[in-house]
Amino acid sequence: MHELYRMALSNRGLSRSNVLHSFRGSGFGRDCPKFGTQCYSNSENLGEIAMTLKRGSVFLIVSIAVCIASTPSALAADDEIKLTFLGTGAPRPSHDRYGPAILVEAGDYKIMVDAGPGMRERLFQAGGFEMLTTVDHLLITHLHFDHTISAPGLWLTGWLFGRKTPMNVYGPVGTSAMMDNFVAAYDWDIRYRTIVGVHKEGSQLNTTDVEPGVFFDKDGIKITAFNVEHLPINIETGEPLGMEGATLGYRIDYRGRSVLFSGDTRSTPSSEIIPMGKGVDVLIHETQVPAPGDSPEAILANVSLSVHSSPAQVAYVFEKTRPRLGVYSHIIPPEITSDELLGLTDYDGEMMVADDLMTLTIGDQITVGRAEGAGTDIFTEADVVEE
What we know:
The protein is α/β, with parallel strands linked by helices. The chain has helices at 119-132, 145-148, 151-160, 175-185, 187-196, 273-277, 296-301, 311-321, 338-343; strands spanning 40-43, 48-55, 58-65, 81-87, 101-106, 109-113, 137-139, 167-171, 205-209, 213-218, 221-227, 248-254, 257-261, 282-288, 325-332, 351-353, 358-362, 366-370. The radius of gyration is 21 Å and the shape is globular.
């Protein structure tokens, strides 16, 4: 049983029902949630239920279509942006939250943002061989392994099973050097496979180190990079510790729709996310909640607090930018529940916690769905090899 979650967020001032209900973020794609009473339906066919989730004085308005059997996430229209959250976790392994990776579909483009652990498998789970062989653009926010380790898998799997266009990778300074190392590491593999008969076309990896500003503007899609605050600092003074390199966020605009990716960041009042994100449709932001206690594991877990954003910092960013929808992804720790995370976020606008395989389609409304089983799982039954 698949579940389709529809969130009507075309206007910020949605009417509120009297239903109080909380649900775990991991509830997407699992058992149908149970609802309270006094809710109203605004779609008989989909069984949509408008309800209010109260968190103290904070309300989250959602309109949900539940328990639609075998209903895959819909394709995006020509003027929409579709997001598929393939991984909503971070470096810490999790059965539920794989490493950070979000697929963006706009027009004829399929663009991956980050390539965390398990991305290839989630992409296959979401769209089969059809999806694996059509993604040919990758944006990398920074060079941590949990954002880059699946780049070779995306590049080489898509090529091996039919893609004949090069993989195009964009990222901060140092990305080209990293990708050159991947090319060198898999040179023997590529030569071997082409000798036995695999097409050579599509095995190329083109990489561009980008600076802040617009670096892609084609076919109605504009991608802007901006610096974010993820480089190491002195915890006492806040001064940078001299680590070279850069860490980036991205904003993608397409035909009046927009989405912003914070990348990894400790968002302060001077964050570039604030001017870049004002009025954006969807703002996706990372977060880290401190581990309790003083065990060696808790101490080690908390060393990264200075380079990630607390829920209070995220709430500040959301308040200053007022997106149509704020979304948590890249969540530390991965086992924290949606109720807990939303309860820590003092923000009165629309927001939610993403889950792996959740989709958002950004149009006049923002529609929440689930991507799974939309493609072909058996290669010889798929029509994916480019002529």
